[in-house]
Amino acid sequence: MSAARDVAYRCVMAVGDDDAYANLVMPGLIDQARLDGRDAAFATELAYGALRMRGQYDAIIAKAARRDPESLDPEVRSALWIGAHQVLAMRVPSHAAVSETVDLVRRERGQGAAKFANAVMRRVTEKTADAWLTVIAPGTSRAAKAVRFSHPEWVVGEFERALAADGRAGEIDALLEADNAPARVTLAARPGLADRDEVVAETGGEPGRWSPWAVTLASGRPGDLASVTEGSAAVQDEGSQVAAGALALARDVEPGERWLDMCAGPGGKAALLGAIAAQHGVELDALELHPHRADLVRASVRAVPDGTVAVHVGDAREWGDEGTYQRIVLDAPCSGLGALRRRPESRWRRDLDDLDDLVALQRALLARAERLLAPGGILAYITCSPVVAETREVVSGSTLRQLDARDAVAALTGTSAPEWGAGPHVQLWPHAHGTDAMFLALLERPA
Ligand SMILES: C[S@@+](CC[C@H](N)C(=O)[O-])C[C@H]1O[C@@H](n2cnc3c(N)ncnc32)[C@H](O)[C@@H]1O
């Protein structure tokens, strides 16, 4: 069996067995197996594709095996997902995909299971992906879309609601499709620490579409770049750059301002805001509940001039002195459903019940943020989720005045405010903006 397929299999199994994150385990597996660039890309596509599309592949396997995929051994089910992905979504010849899958299953579960896998894979290869979709996902119901685009049905429902609330009813297929396309890697060349043109030259990438600091990479491992190693640039979705940058640009920075990042780990926004704070000679407190994530914040801000960012460990609901901060970013813990492109397994890890707890936490954090804000201060409420309950419904419970976030986003991105929807908040979308589905509201405490 090929080393790349073995790496993909180990990754899929680690995600299933150990609750691992594919993007965290994959680099180690690739290094261990000493895959070259081409095989590493192949293994990554196999594993991420299988993890993303497993909802659709389970529906196909159920028909082909005439068995509930849940009843299969995890080893067999994982191997079949990877096999199905090769046949249905990549240009791997059927005979190779079948024999590699059978070899894998034989190694893991013996001859009987290999015979079964052989029969299932042969049936899978009998139809094209489109032909299978007419069998497993006919029509345009929510359930059919869930299978076709391999998302949990409740997530499709939440996305439909969020799109409709944003004047984008009818875009659901485009959104679900965008979630299944791997996101290109974007760096932030942190202002004052790195020069964007130099990072473009260093990486062979291109300037981003929205953020003045963004560099979009064609390919490659960003960890190997000098600017990333020293911390003057870092991987950061353009949506995150826009949301954090909008707070900095919402109005002129006055001397002596104090800024707070209430939920800072792992520190992407803290580093961007810290870099901007340093340019203005103002200070940023970065707070994080979990000590190990606070360590990540310290590492993330290492290139920001000393004395600008102070990292603290604590629960933001009980932290700080009231009326202290002129700017606060509350990048709230959320379902993460706006970042499904980057985390292939994450759509299957949440369920609707998680939302209630998250929303309660988001509301409590926002209530605390309101108190920590100085009169006249501004708060950015941000989520990497478009879910209505986590976004506009949380903000609508605030006692603060909502500013038109479109103005700050337009100023930052060199666009005009009406391009960013009906306001006053801004909702970014993978299919429309090529970013994660970040939500941004700017709230102001009356002076
Ligand atoms: C969405 S992430 C923030 C991402 C971060 N702003 C960035 O750009 O890298 C939310 C963070 O909030 C932290 N968190 C959760 N509950 C918290 C609380 N009560 N107080 C402070 N931080 C909390 C989580 O551990 C997590 O690191």
TrEMBL record:
S-adenosyl-L-methionine binds at residues 263-269, 288, 315, 331. Residues 159-446 form the SAM-dependent MTase RsmB/NOP-type domain. It comes from the Bacteria. SUPFAM superfamilies: NusB-like, S-adenosyl-L-methionine-dependent methyltransferases. The keyword Transferase applies. Coiled coil: none annotated. Keywords: Methyltransferase, RNA-binding, S-adenosyl-L-methionine, Transferase. The active site is at 384 (nucleophile). Belongs to the class I-like SAM-binding methyltransferase superfamily. RsmB/NOP family. This is Transcription antitermination factor NusB.
